[in-house]
Amino acid sequence: MDGINTTMSTADKFTVDNEVNGFNKKLAVNGRTTSQALGKDDFLKLLLTQLSNQDPTSPMENTEFIAQMAQFSSLEQMTNMNSEFTKMATMFKTSEASSVIGKTVELSIGDTTTKGVVDAATREDNPRVLVGGRYYSMDQISSIYGN
């Protein structure tokens, strides 16, 4: 019985590389970029591919399948937790920015510093404060003085 040849010729490798590069370029054109990290969609695709291409004479054991589904569920929950932690971090940053409204702050702007009263704060992922008619990042505040 002859074995299966698993090596690719140089021409085959070239063809595969061209197909992959063409596909990646199409993704970039449509606003999507390739990623080196696997997400939950990739995990599910791998699991489905594994199930559909398994050897019918030696199918995946139930315990293997259950273990992989548990891993998928765990990955999904971690992804959801990460999303919620991001929302919570944004909320804390916004709360911090609003807590300095009406207070005098010292701002580090390059090599110089300036003081002023915070008149307003924005609500965004990286909140900014309005001091003297200009918006500054919260990272630029070096000191906060109680009024």
Write the layout of secondary structure elements.
Blueprint lengths: L9 H20 L10 H13 L9 H38 L4 E6 L2 E10 L6 E4 L2 E4 L3 E5 L2
Antiparallel strand pairs: 1-2, 1-5, 2-3, 3-4
Helix pairs in contact: 2-3
Account of the protein in words:
- The chain is of the alpha+beta class.
- The protein has a domain at 39-49 and 62-147.
- It is built from three helices and five strands.
- It has helices at residues 10-29, 40-52, 62-99; strands at 104-109, 112-121, 128-131, 134-137, 141-145.
- A hairpin with a 2-residue loop joins strand 1 and strand 2 (112-121).
- Helix 2 (40-52) packs antiparallel against helix 3.
- It starts with 9 loop residues before the first helix and ends with a strand.
- The mean pLDDT is 81.
Main attributes of the structure:
147 residues; alpha+beta; five-stranded antiparallel beta sheet; 3 helices
Mean residue pLDDT: 81
Alpha-beta content class: alpha+beta
What kind of sheet is the major sheet? 5 strands, antiparallel
Strand order of the largest sheet: 4-3-2-1-5
Q: How much strand?
A: 15-25%
Order of helices and strands: HHHEEEEE
The number of strands is 5
How many individual helices? 3
Give the CA-based shape.
elongated
| Residue runs with pLDDT of under 50 for 5 or more positions | none
- Cα separation of the termini: 88 Å
Q: From the alpha carbons, calculate the radius of gyration and give it in angstroms.
A: 27 Å
